[in-house]
Structures are given as structure tokens and as C-alpha cells.
Fold this sequence. Notes:
A: alpha/beta; 2 domains; 6-stranded mixed beta sheet; B: ABC transporter involved in vitamin B12 uptake, BtuC
Amino acid sequence: MIDHHIPVVRLVNITKSFGDVIADDGVNFELLPGEIHGLLGENGAGKTTLMNILYGLHQPDAGEILIRGEVHQVSSPHKAIELGIGMVHQHFMQVATMSVIDNIILGLKVGSDFKLGRDAARKRLLELCKLYGLNVDPDAFIWQLSIGDRQRVEILKALYRDVNILILDEPTSVLTPQETTELFYTIRKLVDAGLSVIFITHKLEEATSITNRVTVMRDGKVVATKETKKTSKPELAYLMVGREVLFRTKVETREKNSHRDVLRVSNLKVKGDRGNIAVQGVSFTVQSGEIVGIAGVDGNGQSELTQALTGLREVLSGNFWVDDVELTNASPYKVIQHGVGHIPEDLADGIVSDLTLVENLMLNRHYKPPYSKNGWMNERIMESEARELIHQHDIRTSGALAKAGTLSGGNKQKLIVAREISRNPILLIAVHPTRGVDIGAEEYIRNLLVQMRNRRGAVLLVSTKLDEIMDLSDRILVMEKGRIMGEMMREEANIEKIGLLMAGAEG
Amino acid sequence: MAESIRELHPKPWKQWIKRISDANWISTVLVVLLAFLVGGLLILAIGGDPLRAYLVLIKGSFGNRNGFAETIVKTCPMLLAGLSVAIALRTEFWNVGAEGQIYAGAVLTGLASIYIQGISAVIHLPLALLAGALGGGLWAFIPAILKARLKVNEVITTLMMNYIMTFIFSFLVDGPMRDWVSGLNISPQIEKTTWLPILLAKTRLHSGILIAILAAVVLAVILRKTVLGYQIRAVGGNTRAARFAGIAVENTMVKAVIISGMLAGLAGAIEITGVQHRLIAGFSPGYGFLGLAVALLASLNPIGVIFSALLFAALLNGADAMQRWASVPIAMVAVIQGLVIIFSAIRFFFNRSTLKRKAGS
Lengths: 507, 361
């Protein structure tokens, strides 16, 4: 019934850059009729940008979009819908105080000027619900619905507009496991009814369970397109993180004399934002003079783990100690006081844009002498120390008293790293320390981590960049679904082994 | 990511507005000029002479001894209310309850200055003022702790607590504290030892303004030079970064709000000891609410608040003269006030949204 040879969507050589960041670099992509096509890649690989281009939210710098064999200029989402393309975003575009039906017809003209035409719309909606087995009460208010229901509304919104190509942007990231199962059921029904679906994800499990084909993206490029049946999770993991490991940072092997346990974590369980258990009982140690790297696909509990270790997230059960002092559920202040440094996952969480560089550099020490005394700041000492740090770490700025918001991304991150390391922490928790920074800053930050380890400091490094983990770590842990799947020394590590563990195979 | 990148290349007009709104001085003057310009057009539209009207307005509020004195008298509570709102808003706490805190301060000042008797003015006056600050601080502490511990929305609690306090106040001057001799709903006169000294003979200009200006300077120093001020600025600038750096965000906010309440309470205390000399229901014609406008116009800068309070006081005070001598209705002053509020609010939210976006990059 469907011609399986003409792709419904063909993207040819799509290139898109923002400033000097290239999001998509000559990407080719094909969606066949009636298929579920997984688009797999790490955060920042360019998946969402590519789909935003197809949906008309961005205009490509170069390349062509063919819909059902014809070249089209998708100038706006409106145009995309006209072409039969719908997209369900990670963040739902809904008015919480309006009913389901009102949200569905929002922006459409269904009735006359004086009549909304809700009744006809409701009838049509109920038909759609029945056809695709989607259960939603048209008259419920959005705020009354669960996240899963709200997602169904979003899908219905697209179906109501007669789309036959549906893009789902990380649809499961907000769902519970049961809701995910229901979603997969719905997707299969949609495909049975003749739709073609693009499924953006960074979870290997999903990429292999629901799709017909998978396209893997890395650093703005397509690495491969595979038939799901003919590939495996380890292979996909391998494609996703990249095979070329560049040993750019020189790390001498660690001398094996007496090291003590600096961080000791025992059976730690931590709640996630959705009431799930994001960290499901992990135990490990980090010794002095050691970098322990945690590898894994984003969203497998690494964020929650590091937030718990820095006092920012409540620990459900289990304990952890820093230098034999128990810090389970201690305040961030107390954790810092015990000599723990923290490079946060999102660099925006490390900088107060409206304060000066000096004030930002002193953020983690301003409260104690000599920086302040009896509640008064000592600006002279703060400024001279900050100037030294700026000089030492070559933070490019118009001045020490410039606002930190004026710095470039790489320099912001250098500022954060300089601030944390200069305090001589006994333990540094570095989460994606080089994410979103330029090559120069990346190299510099990696070297600082190694220096700290060589000074017998302990470093816990969380990164999704496998080369970074393998370059820097003395010991590597792999996290998947909130568990530590395996542990290996630097010498025994190789990318296949890590990829296998990341994909969930027992180590 | 798209957000942050868009911010690197903002539209030219946006860049232009941003540059102006970054330079606080210029933008504040522009906001005021714009308000007067639009107000002038409106005066023109109702057949008045805007230039004359404004001239009379200025004359009325500054032109003679008494007009000047009255302007300053009105500046005083507005300045303190403006500071009150500003310091709380620095930690993202919308204190819409300055009005209630003014009344709370007045109650304790009233108690201290009516029922404590026979002590020297050197002790009694500071005591009465302190009592006022304490009252305001306590009244503000409730919504602060509710927000810090239970995340209760402060706009609702502070707003509602205004009603509670104004009714408590009315009850007091109608019952327990009523001066039955006068036949009015007022308290007895406060002890002379708690009267603020008059600065300008034969006017109501009292020394409260000196206290208010001092409060502004002290607040500026706190923000710039102390650990607490630094923490307040860090929390207001980026709550998450402050929390990540170990600053106890909720504690900082509670402290800022207590200071905020104390400033509003002090405003109440000064109104009682400087102007009314007794408790009178409705003695504050909404100074607490005007404080919001005063603070926004000054971009939450304590020193700026001095001038912005002066402007609002002058508008209030010159309105009468404008109606009498330029036949422009008093309501026009409310219109100009409204315009100042609208323009400064636009600027405030514009700045905040660009800041937020910057923080998110």
C-alpha cells in the first residue's frame, strides 16, 4: 500500500551553525514511509537542531529538504504542519489552565467568528482517540493531567492537524516506565495507521527496542544508519561515543604507594526529579592521588549522584564519607568546608553573571578570613588573589572588575575550575568539566585535573566523553540505569568493554 | 543552546535598549522623562498647558518653604518603603507587604512611646524607633520563613498580611489603645520625649529624613562591603550558583526580608514620632505600595532610592498646586506616577529577562 522506495523525508547535506559552533555538518538523513526511525546521539550531537530544521524552527545554512520527493522550503512550523510534519517537543507547548479540547484547537479556526466549534472538534478528537487507542478526556484541564496524558495531548494535537510524519524529541525522558510502555504501544499504532515516526533519543535501550532503523549522530555528523535488527546495543554505544581515542593529555601511571580512601560511598540511593530512584545503591571509593572516571550515557544517574555527594540532593539511603567524616545529607556549605570542590554539570550553575570576576572567584571562600572578618569583606585581599588567579589561569577578560557574564563559555569554565582548584580541595567532583568549551580550554582544564591528582588530590570525574574518561582516569566506573555496571583499571580499559557496560551488559 | 546563541547576536534595537538599561543613571532619567513626556501629551489632550502645569508642579513641591518641607516629609516614608522593597527584591522576594509592616512598626512604636513614660528623650526616642523596626521585622519574618521552609508564595502572604495588620491597627485605635477623651478613633498623644526634632521651624519637616538617608547609605554599604550583602547579591544574581557555592540561600533571603521589614517598620515609627504624634487609622496612604514603584524606578539601588522617593513625593505634593494654578486635575499626577511605574517595570523585567538568559548560557 505504501511505496517503500521513496523516502517521505530526505535531508541532503544539511549544515547549520550558531555563531562559531557547528551544530549540524553536512547531515544526510532519510525517513522511509511507515518506519520508526531512531535518531541516536549524545546531548549536543545535533539531533534536535536537525529536527528543528525539518520542523521549520531553524533555517539551514546549506542543504535541501525533500518531502515525498519534492524540494521544499520549510520556513516555519506552520509550513511544516501544512506539509504533514508534526513535532512533539520535550517541553510541552500547552496552556495549563485550558481544557484538552481547547488546547488542541488552539490556533486553528474551527468554528465561525462567534462560535468556537468545540462540539465538532470534540467529536473529531474522540474519533482520533478511538482510532489510535489514546485515552484522554477532552474536557479535562491540562493541569489535572499526568505527564503521560499531557504527552498524549501533544501527539493528538499533531494528529488533529493531519500530520503523517511525527517527530518525537526524547519523548521518554519525562515518562515513568509504564508510561513509556504505553507510548511505545501508541507509536506502533500510529505506524500501523500509516504514519512515519522519527524518534530522538540518547537511550540505547529505546533505540533498539522500538525502531526499525537507527541513525547515529556524533558532533554534528551522521556516523552511521543501521537496521535495528542487524545491530546491537554495544555497536551503537560504540558508534555514539566514537572510536578515535586521542591520548591528548599525558598521564603518567600512578605510583603505587600508600594511598588513603578520600571518598567512600556505600550503597547510596538517591531520588530523581520524577520520583524515580535515579541512583540505585552504588558503592565505590576514590583514593588520594587518583582520578576515578564515571562513564555512561547521560541521564543514567550521574547527575543525581554528584548532586547527592555535594549536598544538593537528598540521599534516600546509604552513606558517604570524605576523609572518614560522614557527609550524608550534609549542607553544601558543610561539604565545601570539608574540602570538597565541585565543578557543576551546567556551567551556568557556577557563575553569577551580574557579579564581577573577583566576586565570582571568591564565591567559595568569601565567608572566612582573610577574605572577610566579622562580616566585612576584605576587598583588597579578594582582589589581589583574584587577579593572581586570572593571570595564572589566563582567563581572558577585559578586567578583574568586569562582570562575569561578559566572559566566553570557555573562560567561564576556566574561572570555575580555577576557583575550585585554587582552594586545594582534598576531593574534586568534576562533572562534564569540558562540556561546551573550546579545545584550548578543554586541554587546559584536563591538565589541571591531572595536576591535582599528581599533588595527591582525589578527583571524581563524570563525563560522557569516553576519550576524556580513558585519557584521564586511573580507574573507570561505568554507570547505567543508576547502577555501577563495572569497574576497571586504566590499563584494562578499552572502548568495546566500556561500550558493552554502557549498554547494560553485566561486567 | 539556541537561546544562548541568539543572545550573542541580539537584534540591534534590543542591543540598543540593553546598553541604555545597563547604564542605570541614564535609563532612570529616560524613564522619568518619558513618563513626563507622555503625561504632557495627555495634559495637552485635555486642553491644558503641560509646561505651565509642570512648572506649577515643581513650584508647589519645592518653590516655598512649606511646600519644600511637606515634600521632604512625604519623601521620608517613601524612601524607607522603597529601601524595604529593594532589599527584599534583591533576593527575589517580592515584598508587597511593606504597608502592613509600616503599620506593624507603628503599633510597637505606639506602645513604646505611649505607655513607657518618664525616661529621657535620649533613650526614649531611639527606643521608640527601634520598637518600630522590630515590629516591621517581626511582621515580615512570618512570610519569609513560610517561603523559606514551605515555599509559600510571598506575594500572596505579604499582601494578605497587609489586611490583617491594618485591621489589627484599626481595632487597637478603636479599642484598647483608643483615646476616649477625643471621641475619635485615635490613640492618646505619644510622649513628648519621643517626638522627632523639627529641622525647619514652623514646618512639619522633622529629622526623620536624616534617619532615612542614613538608612539608604547603611544599606548601600551593607550590600557592597559585608558578607551578607555579597551573599544577597549572589543569591539575587543566580540562586543556583549561590547554592552550589555553599551559600545558604534560604537563610540569606530570610535575613534580607527581616531587614526589609525593619525598614518598613522604621517608616511607620517615623511617621508616628515625626508627623502624627499618635496612632491614627489610615495614617499611611499606601506608602508601602508606592515603595514598590520607588524601588523599581531606582533599579533596587539604595542611593537611587533617595532620588526616586523624592520624585514620587514631589509629584504627590505638587498635585494640589497643579490643580489650583494650572487647572490640571490632581488625577493627572496619578497618571504620571502610573507611567513612571509602567516604564520602570518594563525596564526592570527587560533587564531581568536578559540577565536570566545570560545566566542560562
